[in-house]
Amino acid sequence: KIQQNDKDEVVSLPIDQDLIFSFVRTREGKLLIGTNRGLFLYSSPQGNQPPQLIRRIEEIPETTIRVLYAGQEGVIFVGTADHGLFRINTSTEAYLFKVTPLTSGSEIDGVNSQSFFQDDQQRLWVTTSRSGLIKIINPLKKVQEKLHFEVFNLENGLETNSTKAVFQDFEGNIWVGTSGKGLSMLLDEAFSFLTFNASEPGNSIYSITADENYYYFGGDYGVLVMNKTDRKPVRMIGTKEGLPTDRVTSLFFDHGGVLW
Q1: Measured between alpha carbons, how far is 26 from 44 in angstroms, rounded to an integer?
Q2: Less Cβ around it within 10 Å: N or C end of the chain?
Q3: Which spans in the chain are helix H?
């Protein structure tokens, strides 16, 4: 936890899990934590007191939880390493969740998801390690409804089946960060591609965000800033600016406009 004060104090809160891959806060203020042993519900930390275990979410298999994503209407999407995707509808009653297998019985069940993004039409975009980019058209479907989805991969225009990050900008374009093949942009079901200098930020893009004027792409060697108007690089934020020599796996603008 980073205390928001002048010193940006970092507070370590121990938790009884070996590997933590993802976490998200529920609308009731609890923590869902994805681990190598399944999904667990914890209380919200109080001050410097660590979160307390409430229970394991037994409706989800005891497997690696790769992705947790807080979508629209209080829904949380869960991506696993080898058991597909799940949807959690939280309840106003304490600790009660409705868990729905989202991809069970479909052609995309068992995909190894890497990240999620829900666009302005409530469609869920899923990046994967080996299956390209998946667009789930009706992620809020009822249990009895058929799952509708599209897959973008090497067979229909994507330059690689290994995708890392997905983001929709203010103009409605879908940006896809790939492993080793730079950026892809999807507009009207057609892809355009951007590759970069191997060292700025590298051709594996792990995170994407944007503000009013610029795109920001996190890679192996820092963050590349690109002008939205002409889509040309403006500057590189790397070790010279104070970043560690490491890949940038997540980018986020807070309410004050600060990029984290």
Answers
A1: 10
A2: C
A3: none
